[in-house]
Write a structure and sequence with these properties.
The chain is mainly alpha-helical and 166 residues long. It has 3 domains: 1-34; 38-99, Cytochrome C biogenesis protein (Helicase, Ruva Protein, domain 3); 104-131. 64% of the residues lie in helices and 0% in strands. The protein has helices at 3-31, 38-48, 65-80, 84-95, 110-131, 143-159. Helix 2 packs across helix 3 (65-80).
Length: 166
């Protein structure tokens, strides 16, 4: 193989390696830790809270007046320097655990998360039990049974007549 052919075959590999390096650099660059701004913090907290009017949307996504007031309250609490947990606890105290879109597993609402998983595990066990029956265990026959079978086989062989004797 001459050098021109080798260079032509190596070109796609070089491009592939360069693309992989570029992707790796982009991932590392985007995953670097950075200081979160107050606006990003407000967005993150309001995305975790349920709108009390819409109930299917987060406070961040809801267009309702109540959601706007809740967003303003979160922004005010962030500006005061309160922690995320303090802000969430204030809303939990006012509205209950349901105001958090992902309720904690420690409360009664945790059953909503655990019951389907337990049902799935139980269903899998039942299905596997029905698909794979228990293996049959062959036991050694008793000596009396072996002797009776040998005796019967001998009697039947004695009764057998040869084909030519008919």
């Amino acid at each position: 193989m001459n050098s021109a052919t080798r260079a032509r075959l190596a070109a796609p590999r070089v491009v592939l390696v360069m693309a992989l390096v570029a992707i790796a650099v982009a991932i590392v660059w985007s995953a670097r830790p950075h200081a979160e701004t107050q606006a990003e913090r407000v967005d993150r907290i309001t995305a975790e809270l349920r709108c009390v009017v819409c109930q299917g949307l987060s406070v961040k996504d809801s267009p309702s007046e109540s959601a706007r007031q809740m967003r303003d309250l979160v922004a005010q609490r962030v500006a005061e320097g309160r922690s995320d947990d303090q802000i969430r606890d204030e809303f939990r105290a006012s509205y209950g655990d349901w105001v958090v879109l992902a309720p904690p597993l420690a409360s009664w609402s945790g059953l909503v998360w655990l019951v389907p998983l337990a049902a799935l595990a139980l269903g899998t066990l039942v299905a596997l039990g029905r698909i794979r029956p228990a293996p049959a265990v062959a036991r050694e026959p008793a000596p009396a049974d072996v002797a009776a079978l040998r005796e019967r086989a001998a009697r039947e062989e004695a009764l057998d007549l040869p084909v030519d004797a008919r």
